[in-house]
Specification:
The complex is a heterodimer of chains A (505) and B (315).
Chain A: E1 5-16, E2 19-30, E3 34-38, H1 45-53, E4 60-65, E5 68-70, H2 75-80, E6 83-86, H3 98-102, E7 109-110, E8 113-114, H4 116-129, H5 145-158, E9 163-167, H6 175-190, E10 194-198, H7 202-208, E11 211-216, E12 219-225, H8 231-239, E13 255-268, E14 271-280, E15 283-288, H9 294-301, E16 309-314, E17 317-319, H10 324-330, E18 332-335, H11 339-343, H12 350-355, E19 363-364, E20 367-368, H13 370-384, H14 400-413, E21 418-422, H15 430-445, E22 450-454, H16 458-464, E23 467-472, E24 475-481, H17 487-494
Parallel strand pairs in A: 3-10, 3-11, 6-9, 9-10, 15-22, 15-23, 18-21, 21-22
Antiparallel strand pairs in A: 1-2, 1-4, 4-5, 7-8, 11-12, 13-14, 13-16, 16-17, 19-20, 23-24
Helix pairs in contact in A: 8-17, 13-14, 14-15
Chain B: H1 2-28, H2 35-60, H3 68-85, H4 90-115, H5 119-138, H6 152-155, E1 157-158, E2 161-162, H7 163-181, H8 183-193, H9 195-200, H10 205-231, H11 242-252, H12 264-283, H13 288-314
The chains are: A alpha/beta (505), B mainly alpha (315).
């Protein structure tokens, strides 16, 4: 049986401290087929392909390539066995020509000098084989993204790849470029090359693939024959987990009469046509896939990146924050996704972290009122229940959950009215998660704040939001009221673009 | 927790190094601990100490200021020129000089913050340009002939304590006050520790960079005036290489070259160590070329220690 498959991943398991990224995943790739690999954010697609490329060493399981068994790969082994990966970020040198990029790291040489002519000739041949029109002498930086990708593909084929793994290849491309990429991929299939195609765009998967493997939460769910399957079934499989986690209950506290933030046709930072209303006491969830433009929207509201056009109304007044400082002074706060890089200042004490945005306010002639500083820190340590022996403790010595509470305390101290949470519980253990949820509830219920919550966790989104707005590729594709919350619907909106006509949810 | 202990050890260790050095030099030459010699040593390092305040702030932000020596030179000539060639009143000359040196620092800030030139290059450019400007101003010749009153800053005494040492002590006090008691100090640590998070906490990082380079210019200017008073002659090579010693004092004092960590008390120790080293080596008749080698090794060790620490934290 196994001769039929060019690549088999058997019972792959990958554990990280505290997390299991892959549990017993099995995947088989036939010669000359296009196998689509799909799943939500964090389903384990990237980890799985990294196991194939050698970037990640699986905890257990075997990788069989062309009949040879491996327990793990190295980048070199992968290349020797004909596995090539086309990443979203290209591995090219912009200042070199297409031909030179094609032979990067293994140039054709004449003695000790590089034989440019021979490389250009070979490159022309390679491009010809894929029927793509690229002059081998063109500098990489002068090629469009689509053509740069073609050079990557040509390079893989030139290096005798038999298995091509493509990670979201259509994401950076225009629709015309996507068409020509499809043609190249289909030609490769005809030539007997096997392709693993990862994409969020379900229409592409139906157009290209022979079979579909669905992953969910690091587990293998099912393999489908593309032509016998339905979009609804696929979505069901991707999201079809039991909603098991419980969320702390919250009374009805939305004050419909008071709109805290209103966006009218806001453009900028890659987002188009953003229209949004958040009321006092409301938690609005912002759903969508990674790269849908959710963080970008948060950055605009917070003034980190200015918007290009459109109207932003905060508490009844038109505003246009051009820096985080201005946004903070208005009463907008951002709890960023990457806590360690953008949120907490790790090498600084809890007390100083909490006071950071209000130091100027609590200073006379730039001298800090240290009594007030300490009182503020104590107040929010108490209300946030930050576990620490002393407020002089450096934030890097706290757990993820406590770090998050410090950041929250900071924004409460700054008297923020609207708090934007970007992935509020990422990397936080289960117990602390529940605490963060309770704090969020308190914020809207007792303090009358408004919350915009970006979350890639479907359960969290459904469990915490009063309303969910879904983004896809920089546009708002759907809005759901509490009674309409369904994983399938959210997923369908999140992957809706370019398939609007033929999808019925 | 462990890192904190290591850092605390490092903060204390620097004083241990100082004591060991003092003992070693005393054994080599008992004249080293003579109070007169110790006061001389302090007077010798006072310029480093004064200039090190601004440098500390710059390095806390993770940047560097190479223009310090050149600002000292320029100030030497400029202030001498104002007083001697233009016959300006001493106090006015000093005030104008300090304003100008602060503006030179602000120019560094402009290049680093507004234009985005790396601090290493921006301040390097300033260094060269102002060295040239100093030479043009004095035509390569020393400027002499100050009033007796002007000598007090570099040569005067209060009791047995030299005035420059008092000025240094006041500067250390001001530096510690800014770092610990004003919100600017908090901002320096925040920006140096994590620029992105600092920005998202509402700190206007650009302005902070301006401020820090301006402060560095100011303290370099002050050091230049003290030096002018001490040598009693405006010379076009007065501050040559000073930035090196000042940076060594600061880094030896435990201020992280990666930014975000450091204290004035450490810098005080660093400055004393450099003073003891220089003075001790002279007393031991160590050849000045060899002295250069020693100073180079000391700087490399100080930075190496800091970087190893950083490496350990990230792996």
């Amino acid at each position: 049986m196994s001769e039929e498959y060019v690549l088999q991943l058997q019972h792959i398991r990958k554990e990280y401290p505290g997390v299991i990224a892959l549990k017993d995943v099995t995947l088989e790739l036939k010669k000359g087929e296009i196998l689509a690999l799909i799943g939500e954010n964090g389903a384990g697609k990237s980890t799985l392909i990294k196991c194939c490329s050698g970037a990640v060493v699986p905890t257990s399981g075997t990788i069989v390539v062309g009949g040879t068994e491996f327990t793990s790969m190295t980048p070199q082994l992968a290349a020797e066995n004909g596995i090539a990966i086309i990443y979203q970020e290209f591995n090219n040198v912009k200042e070199l020509s297409a031909a030179e990029n094609l032979f990067l790291g293994r140039p054709i040489r004449k003695g000790i000098v590089v034989d440019k002519k021979a490389m250009e000739k070979e490159a022309a041949k390679a491009f010809e084989q894929l029927r793509i029109k690229i002059d081998p002498k063109t500098l990489m930086k002068d090629l469009t993204v689509g053509y740069q990708q073609m050079v990557e593909i040509a390079k893989a084929i030139q290096q005798d790849a038999k298995i091509l793994i493509m990670d979201e290849p259509s994401a950076p491309l225009t629709s015309a470029e996507v068409e020509s990429m499809f043609r190249v991929v289909e030609r490769l299939r005809k030539e007997g090359i096997s392709i693993v195609y990862i994409s969020h765009r379900l229409d592409e998967i139906y157009r290209l693939s022979d079979r579909i493997v669905v992953l969910r939460d690091g587990e293998y769910v099912k393999t489908l024959i593309t032509k016998d399957s339905q979009i609804q079934e696929l979505i069901q499989l991707m999201v079809g987990r039991e909603l098991t986690e419980t969320y702390p209950p919250r009374g009805s506290c939305i004050d419909k009469s008071e709109v805290v933030l209103e966006l009218n046709d806001v453009f900028g930072n890659g987002d188009k046509n953003m229209n949004l209303k958040i009321h006092k006491g409301e938690i609005v969830g912002l759903g969508g896939l990674v790269g849908a433009g959710r963080t970008e929207l948060a950055e605009m509201i917070f003034g980190a990146v200015p918007k290009q056009s459109g109207q932003m109304i905060f508490k009844g007044r038109e505003v246009n924050p051009k820096s985080p400082r201005e946004a903070i002074d208005l009463g907008i706060a951002l709890v960023p996704e990457d806590r360690k890089r953008h949120g907490a200042m790790l090498g600084i004490s809890i007390k100083n972290n909490i006071n950071m945005p209000i130091y100027e306010k609590n200073s006379t002639l730039s001298v800090i009122n240290s009594k007030k500083e300490m009182e503020t820190a104590e107040k929010y340590q108490k209300s946030m229940a930050i576990k620490t022996p002393t407020l002089h403790q450096l934030v890097k010595n706290l757990s993820g959950g406590n770090q998050q509470k410090v950041i929250l305390g900071r924004w409460l101290a700054a008297d923020s009215e609207l708090i934007i949470f970007d992935e509020p519980t990422r990397g936080i253990d289960v117990g602390a998660k529940y605490e963060i949820y309770k704090l969020m509830n308190d914020l809207v219920e007792k303090e009358g704040k408004a919350i915009l919550m970006i979350s890639s966790e479907m359960e969290e989104l459904i469990g915490m939001s009063d309303r969910i707005v879904v983004l896809a590729e920089g546009e708002m594709t759907g809005e759901l009221q509490k009674e309409e919350f369904r994983q399938e619907t959210i997923m369908a909106y999140a992957s809706v673009t370019r398939m609007e006509e033929d999808q019925t949810v | 927790m462990k890192e904190k202990v290591v850092y605390q050890l490092k903060d204390k260790a620097i004083w241990v190094v100082f004591v060991v050095l003092v003992i070693a030099f005393t054994i080599a030459n008992p004249r080293f601990v003579n109070p007169n010699n110790l006061l001389t040593m302090l007077r010798q390092v006072s310029m480093y100490g004064i200039a090190s305040i601004g440098m500390t702030f710059v390095i806390l932000l993770g940047d560097i200021d190479l223009s310090t020596g050149s600002i000292i030179t320029f100030v030497n000539i400029f202030c001498a020129y104002l007083m001697v060639n233009m016959g300006m009143n001493m106090v006015l000359a000093i005030i104008i000089t300090l304003i100008v040196s602060t503006l030179i620092g602000t120019l560094n800030g402009f290049m680093v913050s507004t234009i985005g030139i790396p601090a290493l290059i921006a301040t390097f450019a300033t260094q060269t340009a102002f060295q040239g400007l100093a030479l043009i101003l004095c035509g390569g010749l020393p400027i002499n002939g100050f009033t007796e009153k002007f000598k007090i800053f570099g040569q005067g005494y209060v009791g047995i304590v030299p005035v420059p040492v008092i000025i240094m002590a006041v500067c250390f006090g001001v530096g510690a006050f800014i770092l610990n008691k004003t919100y600017f100090g908090r901002y320096f640590y925040a920006v140096g520790g994590n620029v992105e998070a600092a920005k998202l906490s509402g700190i206007r990082v650009g302005r902070i960079k301006y401020l820090v380079f301006a402060i560095s210019g100011f303290f370099a200017g002050l050091a230049g005036i003290v030096m002018l008073s001490r040598t009693n002659s405006g010379m076009s090579n007065a501050g040559q290489g000073y930035e090196f010693d000042v940076i060594t004092c600061v880094v030896l004092g435990g201020v992280s070259v990666n930014g975000g960590y450091g204290m004035i008390s450490g810098v005080v120790a660093g400055t004393f160590i450099i003073g003891a080293l220089k003075n001790g080596m002279v007393l031991m008749n160590i050849n000045s070329y060899v002295q250069s080698i020693v100073m180079g090794v000391v700087l490399a060790f100080a930075v190496g220690f800091d970087c190893l620490q950083k490496k350990k934290q990230t792996t």
